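::Amino acid chain::
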Amino acid sequence: MNIRNLRNQQGLSIIGFIIVLSLVVFTSFIAMRIWPIYYEYFAVVNAMNSVASTRGSARMSPYDVRAKVYANLFVSGTEGTIKNENITVVRKNGVHVRIVYERREPLIGNLDVIAHFDKMVRLQN
């Protein structure tokens, strides 16, 4: 191999590889910290939809609606974050169940991730 061919070769240097690797690791770390928050939200939405699809759920008392939502959250293992005051039954233009809550999780050092969720589902007659 002559010197002219060595100068024309291209590729990723070790410093470039370390920079790309650090970006991938940092992005993966952030995703691993945020994913459980959204997993819990998807479980809450699934619990709400399950209660809403129950026949006659619009005629249930607010206590019964909360109890059914909690039962569904217990099955998914995400019952710890949602409190009783986060679940309301709204009777405007039909009967709706509404869950409003906020999650705060530490990210790095003194930086936190704050996620605010507000979901309303119409209950079935």
User: Anything to note?
Assistant: DSSP finds three helices and three strands in the chain. The helical segments are 3-8, 14-52, 62-76. The mean pLDDT is 88.
